[in-house]
Structures are given as structure tokens and as C-alpha cells.
Amino acid sequence: MISTEADLAKASVLVADDDKDFRQAVAEFIEMEGWQVWQAQDGEEALDFARAYKPDVIILDQRMPGLTGTEVILHMRDRGIHTPVVFISAAREISALALSVSVNCYLQKPFGINDLITLLNQALQGGC
């Protein structure tokens, strides 16, 4: 759990989304906020990054090639990885999908970057 504003600036975030333009825009904004950011273009890569780099939080899209976001979460848990996730999707059923894998922080695309930052802070504080 991250406890201070200074710690938040040192936090690491994995952005996993197959939409390259969206992923890069989100990553650039988060980097401008002072966080370390990694990017994954699909579910398999997200799982590999989660295992290798152990980010403080993961922004995870549902619809990606290979593994979906929910499948990534289930694989992570099977491997003992309990990194907080901010789940994102254009799917209307995002809330049901998120709750099906016990993720409390989720956003439906399109969303405002301030909403994402709010949820990232919640996740980094242990609220997701």
C-alpha cells in the first residue's frame, strides 16, 4: 500500500490495452504525473509484465487479443499475484465483469482522465 503523496509519485503502473493510441495517451498522462509506466498490448503481455515487474497497480482493458482482462486477473490470482486493478472497457457490462472477478475499481470507456487518476489513487491506497 502506498501511504504518502511522495510515494504516489514513485508508484508503478502497467497500462494494458490493445488500442495503441489509447494506451500510449494514458501512459503519457500518467508519466507526466510522475509515475513509472509500463505498457502491454495484450493479455499475455500484461500477465508477463505483472509477473516480471510487479507494478503497484494495473490498468487493464477487458477486450484484448489472447487473454481477456478477466482471464488475466484469474491467471494472476492463480499465480499468487494480487496487484490492484483498475478495470476498463467500452462494454456496457463492465460493472458485472469487474464484480465477477472481485474488482471494485472500474471505468467504462470513454472516461475522463481525472476519473482514472482518482481510481488509480484509490487502488494505490488499497481501496480496490
UniProtKB/TrEMBL annotation:
Q: Its GO biological process terms?
A: phosphorelay signal transduction system
Q: Any idea which residues bear 4-aspartylphosphate here? A: D61
For this UniProt record, the keywords arranged alphabetically read as follows:
Phosphoprotein
Show where the Response regulatory domain sits.
12-124
Entries under InterPro entries matching the protein = Bact_response_regulator, CheY-like_superfamily, Sig_transdc_resp-reg_receiver
Q: What is this protein called?
A: Response regulator
Task: Say which species the protein is native to.
Answer: Noviherbaspirillum pedocola
